[in-house]
């Protein structure tokens, strides 16, 4: 069996693969400020060519490059594998136990920005293919890979790439390898992602900041913005904008059946432990907490800024205030339609002076549990991790999955090999040797199982 041969190979070359991963992690690729992105794309191309891919680097104006690869076998089936090589900014630097781009290995952890999200996932795909090449074997499916460099800033240009190269991206199914394991070390499979509308609201009430003694006469931009924000969301998280829920699709029987089969108690307990929580918002628990997490739209303040926040005292009345908000959306909500609802809402509430700037749009996605790719990934997860995978009908997170399900018409599974609660987007992000090497086996097993499934 090919998987047994790959497992034996990893015993011999696993150290080589881990050193390659560390080199990859040492190359910054911070899409939020463009740091190291081109160099990282070039490095990834070299790793892929070494693995046996035929590689192209696609470029567009005002966009980070996409690294694309193909490897054909005698199969009639093709899998498109998606990942991203860009990472989040590492700040706050003072909270890291070691520099974020040194990939220090200590106490069983490889600590670096991107270690879990998502360079270890990218390298697991690359090294799975390289393992076939080293063994002189061919995967049981044709493989196409698409690695973007803008996922961490909302994939603003991936739709342009997909539209321009949609003929090259034809496949039978997609795997978005950008996830990980649950707190018990079981693979999580997400059969859909939430969408997103990301906006900035900005308020200006005067030409310059004023002395705070003038507060009886001059409107404070911070207070005005707060008053506007209070009209958007109730304390229990419900969104108060007219028409916001009009297109929300209620969970199907298949969705609810999947929830009955997952260990959501472990998921919820892991969240409470990791974030040191006594309870969730409004005291919601058990399956109702999971339903809220997966099936309800959200309105989240990501950041807010106004006035003086430095040391000591400064009595100032700020002329400017702004806030960044991410609205997570569920199937079938449309971020473009909801942007107009937001603008109408503010105007109707008397806040027409508040500027609304849209920064990102992502549509929600969905794949049916009966899809062959779901079966293949589920079987592969059980083989490699010796435990039943946790299959969720939807993810609370967002990503460009809709480009594969809606634009390319593919069923898609979002999964990956990052270790549980791995500090993604936070200081001391990490992966482990075992998580990475098992990820290589996981990718290999997915390819073999999908190649064997009849449909």
Folded structure, characterized:
With 455 residues, this protein is an alpha/beta fold. The protein folds into 2 domains: 2-192 and 365-452, Aminopeptidase (3-Layer(aba) Sandwich), CATH 3.40.630.10; 195-248 and 297-362, 2-Layer Sandwich (Alpha-Beta Plaits), CATH 3.30.70.360. The protein has helices spanning 2-26, 37-51, 119-135, 158-164, 221-229, 253-261, 264-275, 286-295, 335-348, 372-385, 401-407, 433-452; strands at 54-58, 66-71, 78-84, 104-106, 109-111, 142-148, 173-180, 188-190, 193-204, 210-211, 298-306, 316-317, 320-329, 355-362, 390-392, 395-398, 412-418, 430-431. The strands form 5 sheets. The chain has a 6-stranded mixed β-sheet with strand order 1-2-6-3-7-17. Strands 9, 11, 13, 14 and 16 form a 5-stranded mixed β-sheet that branches. The longest helix has 25 residues, at 2-26. The chain is globular. The two termini are 22 Å apart. The mean pLDDT is 97.
Task: Supply the key terms.
455 residues; alpha/beta; Aminopeptidase; Alpha-Beta Plaits; 2 domains; six-stranded mixed β-sheet; five-stranded mixed β-sheet; 18 strands; 35% helix
